[in-house]
Amino acid sequence: MKAHQTLRAFALASAAWGGVIALPVLAQDNGPAVDDTGTDIVVTARRREESLLSVPIAVSAFSGEALERSGALDITDISNVTPNTTLENSRGTNSTLTAFIRGVGQQDPVPGFEAGIGIYLDDVYLNRPQASVLDIYDVERIEVLRGPQGTLYGRNTIGGAVKYVTKSLPDEFSLKLRGTYGSYDQADGVLTVSTPISDLIRVGGSVARLSRGGFGENLTLGIDNYNKDVWAGRGTVEIGGNGQPVLIRISGDYTRDKSNARNGHRLIPGLVSGAPVLDDVFDTRAGLNNPRQDVKAYGLAMNITAELSDHFTLRSISAWRKDTSYTPIDFDALPAVDVDVPAVYRNEQLSQEWQLLYESDRVKGLLGFYYLDAKAATSFDVLLGLTGAAIGFPGLNGYTAGDVRTDTWSVFGDFTFDFTDQISLSVGGRYTNDKRSAYILKQNRISGTSPEFGGADPIVIATATNFRGTRTFKEFTPRASLSYKPAQDHMVYASYSKGFKGGGFDPRGSGTSAPDSNGDGVRSYQEIYDFLSFDPEKVDSYEVGYKASLFDRRLSLSLAGFFSNYKDVQIPGSVGCLVGGVQSFCGITTNAAKADIKGIEAEANALLARDFAGDGSSLRFVGALGYVDAKYKRFIGPTGVDVSDIRTFQNTPKWTVSGTLNAGVAMAGGSLDLSTTLSYRSLTHQFEVPIPALDQPGYALLDASIVWTSADDHYSLGLHGKNLTDKHYITSGYNYQSATGVSTLGREGVLTAFYGNPRQVFLTGTVKF
Questions:
Q1: Is the dihedral of CA 660, 661, 667, 668 positive or negative?
Q2: How, if at all, do strands 160-166 and 139-146 pair?
Q3: Global model pTM greater than 0.85
């Protein structure tokens, strides 16, 4: 049996391994960290429960209760109040995530490009960005870890991690109903029920219906633009726990997103049709509606914990996930068939993680093994109908298909040694073996849509790429931190960590564009292999920090300064190109760059007043500040020239600042919570090349909430406002224009923008039993 088949068999067998692997609960009280109401927050950033301020890692945490009070709808909402973090919808969908932390991330959602930021759902790594914009319901907390993660987590992530932790099942019957109604016909409902079956078995689940009308209209198709139409659910069975040495947690989740495709707003008139720029930035004239957008995502996971002794605990995390996204991508956002792209993304993953944890008075840590078997495939029609007609064909299709398989395993460990009550040293390391296998097919066809999108069999007129290749990447990445507590509630720390993200093959690359390096007039397999493949990227990250609880718990403070040396940065992209003398669409990916990234982060939670309006009243301020200075030191462009002085970091504003003022008072037999948040992000570039029409200048968003909760916590009623000043701001876009305004793909020109949500006001009501 081959090695990868053996690993896969182990992963599958773990589902029947009824109680051998676990994580301990190692509660500590080394300094309080609180949410916006003063409640202590406990995190598991180091795979054990600790107070937020005792962790020598830059981490932000949000409790489920605080997220509900603020009216947060999905995980992208938290990026407005998290330093140096960007989480946003990726252009044309509600479901695909673009994530960046401290300048590191990945915008391109096609297979072959690994995420720079790891998204974890109950400790299960989500391998692809599709269906990763997680709606917020039934959540215990969300943690954002900044900087490379790998010695503690299943997948090696070079930029950071976002942990979405759902609630454990209670020991008694519980029912919760939450409803929302607001502007744009927003109507959400979430029903959560759980009950014990016996002393050892508990079952529960949630069903969510999330809907909203469009912020704008598709004037060509007569349908909403930027609407939401989602059904989702989670189910859980817990066996054991409650003092028993074994806990088995089996969970499943399902999401179906049938929202209309989000289509962009043209920033220029049509170059041929003369179609003017629309007044409403949420309106579009896009004409493609095949296939109908449909996103399905589902998965199963089993977490097993077993306390073997007072010192040793074992844990197993077994998971299988699958998602399929059909989406019509209309680049030109006009009725004409001109750079219209029917597309489908298909992803499936099987993962297995084992951990052996150790705890004694002075030593805590873990050893782990992680395995991932993942498949990611895309098929794109690139319909260039007008171009086809211009050269005498009924229609031209630049078909592109990529299938990338990832077979990876890692061993990792991290241990903390408490030399004294004040001085601690943490050291860890990870060895990663990533194998990437790719199949890439790129053809020019005379046809409309391909058979998988309902079209007829095509006539192939040119094949630019018909490639299969395999490559393996191996790397050891260490981590170390030293922390010192000069007093009970103060800690300073310094750390070093190395991050690594494997290379791969560009699934949109054109083999005919490969250079004929030996000048023999023939592009050999090796020349095409070298052109389509790209190397891993690496980062050496240094960080110093200070965390403290001051003035009798009235002020919690976290400060961090960091410097990162970022090497072999992967720069994926796509350009207009010629295949067989005909205009088409090609991917270009290079390890073009070397960069330095440095910055600071500060988070504060201050109790400004107590009992100022009766017993229990409070006035609190929560603030966050991030600064990033990210500069390319070398950036070799397609012509071989260093263009680093005119390149920028995408999705990385230099400044991110937020402040929340929260007041709580007793009222009407319960408590009234009032809060307002002002957040600011400075100039944000959408790509490495500055594009003034798409790049978003600095802007501020104002949110506010008023929530009343009954004294017994059985009822609550809230009024929430998002983006109250109705600011229009660009979050992403497409550009196929030269610097002189000449179209590089399509006749009408492509310069389209996607915008963040406009002003929304909505009511929420919650009933608990």
A1: negative
A2: antiparallel
A3: yes
